[in-house]
Amino acid sequence: MGVIAIDGPAGVGKSTIARQVAAKLGWAYLDSGAMYRVLAHAARQAGVGGSDEAALAALAASLDLVLEPGGRVLLDGQDVSEAIRTPEVTALVSKVAAVGAVRQVMVAHQRRFAERNERVVAEGRDIGTVVFPDADLKIFLDAEPSERARRRLAQAGEVPDGADVAAVEADLAVRDHRDRTRAVAPLAQATDAERIDTSQMTLREVFDAVWVRVRSAVRP
Question: Which CATH number goes with the domain that contains 163?
Answer without folding.
Answer: 3.40.50.300
